[in-house]
Amino acid sequence: MQKKILNLLCFIVFFTSSTLFAKIQLPTVLSHNMVLQQKSQVKLWGKATPNSCVNVKTSWSGQNFVTQSDFNGKWQLVVSTPSAGGPYEISITDGEEVILKDILIGEVWLCLGQSNMALPLKGRPGQPVEGANEILVKAKETFPLRVFTVACKSSELPQDDVTGKWLKPSAENLQNSSAVAYFYGQLLQEVLNVPVGLIVSAYSGSKIESWLPESPSCDLYNAMVYPLKDYTLKGFLWYQGESNCVDPQSYSKYFPLFPKSLREVWGLGELPFYYVQIAPYAYQWLEETAAARVREVQLKNEKLIPNAGMVVTLDLGVETCNHPPKKKEVGHRLAYLALAKTYHHKGFGYQSPTYESIEVKDNEIIITFDYTSSYCIAPIYGKLEGFEIAASDRVFYPAEAKIDYERRKVIVSAKNVSNPIAVRYAFKNYTRASLFDDYGLPVSSFRSDDW
Q: Boundaries of each Sialate O-acetylesterase domain copy (predicted)?
């Protein structure tokens, strides 16, 4: 009954005061070429003539939706989306019609972070992206994947809009699109066979504090996250941490707050949160385990944050560059997590084994691992390296490690260490991975101590 009354009022207002209507204004993320989340209640919003009726019609249903703008002209309503498909159109009018064209419906992910998320497929001078040129050569606009890249901006106050544009995947457009996000979306689309929308909001050199609404320095949240909060998503991707290596302890406080804040702002429940552990790099200006401690924070939070998963990149680091070129591996590993944990596909590896506990016996340390999607651990590039053990003097010495395949454990010892009590693996800023699972996924650096 209320809807019928609202429709009648809108009809009367439209025909008695048509000269008062102004053209609908929409946020940039609601535009031609956008991707909307399938089988969802998605929000549409914008500005119209104050206190006017706004009519919205979706081509996939032919249904009309009606709402009224407030005294500032702001309006918002919710429409239902069908299963994946398109292209579709949306008509929005308060007297002067705006038509959004070439809309796809599929899976939408928000990709956040700093420079490793922002790094485009064309790379940067001296920092190429492996495999990107082949992607650009084969790029086709008809491939059902769209990217919206948020322009970098900061603000002391929450903003209403961002600068950006939904782009089709032509070579020219993809050159400047996030490599990690694209490789993720490409594999997701190929497996799910549905359109994929990627919203990339990343700022080079940013610390996690600037993305947190609770932080005094929440300038990036205000400008690059808050304006997107009404756009319906499937989940979040996060690749950040390098800039927080100066203070791992503070990072441990902020990190679990970030996904919690995102979920509260979007109000869609515990949306998936998949993130990338930072890769090894020789931070010459930092203490030699500072980056390893940030990796440790990220590792521990994988089990503490609900509906989350972490990609290990211990095998992808470059000693002299903190922008590893192997972005395809990063994007695909993120997709493995989503395909397994969100879309419930089975039969492949998606999560690296993690350190669980140790047992000391006969001057040897026996390491037990927690296995999720794999069965065993193995050295891929020869013998196991990067292990250290220490006795009660807390002095670590290089150690030999071997795999007990029957028990799926690693046994570590050192000739000059009697009665060892602690073990570390690859616990340096820069290191090389030597421990993998049977799917080729690397095991994260870890330590049994908290010294």
A: 107-335
Q: How far is CA 211 from the centre of its chain?
A: 13
In this structure, the answer to whether residues 132 and 43 fall within a common structural domain is no
Tell me: do 135 and 147 sit in the same domain. Answer: yes
Kindly provide the residue ranges of all beta strands, DSSP E only, lying in 277-414, ordered along the sequence: 308-311, 354-361, 364-370, 377-378, 387-390, 396-398, 400-404, 409-413
Residue with tokens 């290596």: 245
Please indicate, yes or no, whether residues 259 and 390 belong to a single structural domain of this protein: no
Does residue 277 sit in the same domain as residue 402?
Answer: no
Cβ-based neighbour number of residue 189 at 10 Å = 19
The CA distance from 160 to 158, in Å, is 7
Q: Do 45 and 110 sit in the same domain of this protein?
A: no
- Report strand pairing: 235-239 vs 145-149: unpaired
Nearest C-alpha neighbor of 48 from the set 13, 74, 71, 29 = 74
Residue type, position 344, single letter: H
| Nearest residue to 364 via CA among 418, 434, 407 | 418
Phi-psi region of 34 (alpha: psi -120 to 50; beta: other; left: phi over 0): beta
Which DSSP category does 388 fall into? E
Residues 378 and 298 in one domain: no
Q: In this structure, are 120 and 264 located in the same domain?
A: yes
In 255-326, which residue ranges form alpha helices assigned H by DSSP?
257-266, 290-304
Does the pTM exceed 0.90? yes
Instruction: Tell me the sheet residues that pair with 45.
Output: 76
Q: CA 38, 158, 177, 313 torsion: positive or negative?
A: negative
Q: Which regions in the chain score pLDDT beneath 50?
A: 1-9, 11-19
| Residues 151 and 118: beta-carbon distance below 8 Å | no
Tokens, residue 365: 């340390």
Q: Which of 98, 54, 97 is nearest to 79 (CA)?
A: 54
- Domain residues for the domain of 418 are 354-447
Same domain, 95 and 142: no
Helix (H/G/I), strand (E/B), else coil: 2:
helix
CATH value at residue 66: 2.60.40.10
Q: Is the dihedral of CA 204, 242, 119, 430 positive or negative?
A: positive
